[in-house]
Amino acid sequence: MATNMKYRDDMxxxxxxxxxPATIRVVLDHGLLCVGCPIALFHTVDDAVRxxxxxxxxxxxxxxxxxxx
Length: 69
What we know:
Blueprint: H1 13-19, H2 23-29, H3 45-52, H4 56-68
């Protein structure tokens, strides 16, 4: 999916997964159940990292790799 949208830290997990579907695999691989979760509409990456206690640096790196293709 070609897009001119750029990743921003204030984007919700839902926005990220909708804009870049390849990030769904990253989310699932990190044990997050954001897909279909109503909280994903509000949680940012920082929120998800904090709530689920995952390595934020590793998660962000994987997200960016998926976003950049």
